[in-house]
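Hypothesis: this fold can be encoded by more than one sequence.
Test: take the structure tokens below, design a sequence, compare later.
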């Protein structure tokens, strides 16, 4: 039954390949040349395959006559491969050229020898001729597979789909024939069933010739990373089985119990290698790097990586616990880490003082203090990263060899804590146009290859994409704050109503004074009422103070001591201030803005302190800048509140407070070229430090202090 089925498949394959050969021959040569580098050689290969199918039908698969015609088929197929891969579009290496010449020579000799032997000896030649032809067919099959694999792998980007399809058909036929002969060699018996199915396999390759003759597939075909990786795994499994079979066959020839020992040893090795891949992340990472390095033209599958990167930045991405991750900063850190295979990342954001501090992390070890003062980039570090726009390879920085796009010896002012932490691998500045809005530090992956131009380009482009998301998010936050300010402006109507009531009350008091000014009781009540009204008006005026410097404000040399003395005199009715100022200390600013900042800080310090607690104001020059400290002994603040809420509008710890004092003071200070630092602990009071540019750069820090205590 199997023999009859084999004959049927042989006849069908004969008819099919004959029709395809005639069709290819009838196609216009110019049109075929668009799809095929050598259309006439392909026609010859189809005709030779049809002749081989006729030999299978006439003499049966596995006969020496069929092997003789098979050598003719192999010659035609090798000729087409030579014309396809021995060209400028798909260059063939010198070793492959030698292999191809050797294969053509072996096939030609086998054809001539087999034809001559059967011509003179007839059926008597088959017993001694068949092994020779089988060996020649195996050599040609192995060599043909090498040529197809190397040609497709190295020139796949320059080949069109019909070419890839025909080469794949050749490889499938050779691989099947080689598998049949290897099984026979290992078992010592002919695989009769597989040999009888050979015409069916030939029939399966027929569609590849049909594709080559049609005007489809003009686009280039590329194998996906997933398909290529799985193919490599299957090839590895097949190679393992072949090695097991060959080892057993050799052991049986030697004799003894070596066969079982060899197979057991091979099984132990295979299980050990598989277990190592499953358990060790480092081994898996190393294998992935090796496959990418040696089997693919580019390290990254850009379509897959960019799709995942964009999806991670998007709102619909699921977090580690299966819920949507609303934290954009954490998503940015995660997206850049996954792009490079890093197990974790830190994201740093600018602080009020111009430094960059760790604000968010993704899968970074828990010993990193997010928001800690010791995990920052200095002003100089941030400036260098923004100006040079370099992606920093920290390993190269540790070796002092440059890398990451910067030259050796170039000082990027990377902080010591990053250099000392060997887990930190790469520093990626997130730049939006010319402004650096964040910095990402990537954790070292299990296998960290040296950064090359492809890594730098990918990280640079990904950083720009992430920067656009962050900039849009920040713009949305700014728009939200603007809307809240608009809502806040509408509340002024209520404040104006209070002012109107106060004005009416004072007017009534003035009218009554004309009639009752001579009464002691009225005068006492009037004084008390005026004090209360003045206090309420002062509070309202503070709330209605300008939120930024006026357009007419101009910077100049401003002495600090008179401003502090005036503020102490104004606050005398509420609290005695202890003021200390370095003699002659002057800043480059406008006096109204400096006064407004210090007034805000002093008012907050008084409000935060108990009635009998002292408030100190100390001004000195330090590190080339003026430093004004406002120190209270109040309830203090947590680090989280300072980092997340203190300098945000509409956030206040006071009952009925609008939360605009610290926000306004910081904006004015930054407009003057200064900054505000805060040190505070719950229950231990707070210290606000205002930094302003000095007007006299040469002032002596050791100038005696003059202390003024308000009465």
């Amino acid at each position: 039954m199997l023999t009859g089925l084999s004959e049927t498949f042989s006849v069908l394959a004969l008819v099919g390949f004959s029709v395809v050969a005639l069709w290819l021959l009838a196609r216009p040569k110019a049109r075929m040349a668009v799809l095929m580098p050598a259309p006439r050689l392909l026609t010859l290969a189809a005709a030779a395959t049809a002749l081989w199918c006729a030999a299978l039908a006439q003499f049966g698969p596995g006969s020496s006559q069929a092997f003789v015609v098979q050598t003719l088929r192999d010659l035609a197929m090798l000729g087409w491969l030579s014309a396809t891969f021995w060209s400028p579009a798909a260059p063939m290496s010198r070793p492959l050229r030698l292999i191809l010449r050797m294969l053509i020579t072996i096939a030609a000799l086998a054809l001539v020898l087999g034809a001559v032997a059967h011509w003179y000896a007839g059926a008597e030649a088959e017993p001694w001729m068949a092994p020779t032809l089988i060996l020649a067919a195996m050599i040609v099959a192995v060599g043909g597979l090498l040529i197809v694999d190397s040609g497709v792998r190295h020139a796949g980007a320059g080949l069109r789909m019909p070419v890839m399809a025909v080469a794949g058909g050749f490889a499938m036929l050779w691989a099947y024939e080689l598998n049949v002969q290897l099984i026979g060699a290992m078992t010592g018996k002919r695989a009769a069933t597989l040999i009888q199915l050979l015409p069916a396999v030939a029939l399966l390759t027929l569609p590849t010739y049909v594709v080559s003759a049609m005007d489809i597939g003009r686009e280039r075909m590329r194998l996906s990373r997933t398909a290529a990786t799985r193919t490599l795994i299957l090839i590895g499994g097949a190679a393992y089985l072949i090695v097991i079979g060959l080892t057993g066959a050799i052991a049986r020839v030697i004799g003894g119990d070596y066969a079982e020992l060899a197979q057991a040893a091979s099984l132990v090795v295979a299980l050990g290698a598989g277990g190592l891949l499953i358990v060790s992340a480092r081994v898996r990472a190393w294998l992935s790097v090796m496959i990418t390095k040696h089997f693919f033209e580019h390290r990254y599958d850009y379509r897959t990586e960019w799709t995942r990167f964009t999806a991670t930045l998007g709102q619909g991405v699921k977090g580690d616990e299966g819920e949507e991750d609303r934290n954009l900063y954490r998503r940015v850190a995660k997206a850049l880490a996954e792009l490079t295979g890093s197990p974790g990342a830190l994201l740093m954001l600018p602080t009020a003082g111009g430094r960059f501090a760790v604000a968010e992390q993704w899968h970074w070890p828990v010993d990193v203090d997010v928001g800690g003062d010791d995990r920052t980039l200095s002003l100089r570090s941030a400036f260098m990263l923004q100006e040079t726009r370099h992606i920093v390879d920290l390993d190269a920085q540790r070796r002092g060899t440059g890398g990451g796009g910067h030259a050796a010896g170039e000082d990027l002012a990377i902080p010591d804590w990053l250099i000392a932490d060997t887990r930190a691998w790469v520093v990626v500045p997130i730049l939006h146009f010319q402004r650096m809005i964040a910095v990402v530090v990537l954790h070292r992956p299990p296998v960290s290859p040296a950064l090359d131009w492809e890594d730098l380009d990918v990280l640079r482009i990904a950083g720009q994409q992430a920067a656009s998301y962050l900039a849009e998010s920040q713009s949305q936050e700014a728009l939200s704050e603007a809307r809240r300010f608009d809502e806040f402006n509408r509340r002024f109507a209520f404040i104006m109503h209070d002012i109107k009531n106060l004005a009416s009350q004072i007017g009534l008091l003035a009218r009554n004074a004309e009639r009752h000014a001579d009464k002691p009781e009225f005068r006492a009540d009037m004084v008390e009422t005026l004090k209360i009204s003045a206090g309420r008006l002062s509070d309202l005026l503070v709330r209605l103070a300008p939120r930024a410097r006026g357009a007419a404000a101009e910077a100049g040399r401003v002495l600090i001591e008179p401003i502090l003395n005036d503020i102490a005199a104004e606050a005398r009715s509420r609290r005695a201030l202890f003021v200390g100022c370095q003699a002659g200390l002057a800043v480059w600013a406008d006096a109204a803005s400096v006064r407004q900042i210090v007034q805000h800080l002093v008012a907050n310090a008084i409000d935060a302190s108990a009635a009998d607690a002292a408030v100190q104001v100390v001004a000195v020059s330090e590190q080339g800048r003026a430093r004004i400290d406002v120190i209270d002994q109040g309830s203090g603040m947590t680090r989280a509140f300072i980092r997340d809420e203190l300098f945000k509008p509409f956030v206040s710890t006071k009952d009925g407070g609008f939360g605009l004092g610290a926000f306004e003071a910081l904006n004015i200070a930054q407009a003057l070229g200064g900054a505000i630092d805060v040190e505070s602990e719950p229950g231990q009071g707070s210290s606000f430090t205002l930094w302003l540019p000095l007007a006299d750069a040469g002032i002596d820090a050791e100038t005696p202090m003059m202390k003024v205590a308000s009465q």
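Residues 320 and 363 are 10 Å apart (CA to CA). Confidence is low (pLDDT under 50) at residues 215-221, 546-552, 699-711.
Hypothesis status: open.
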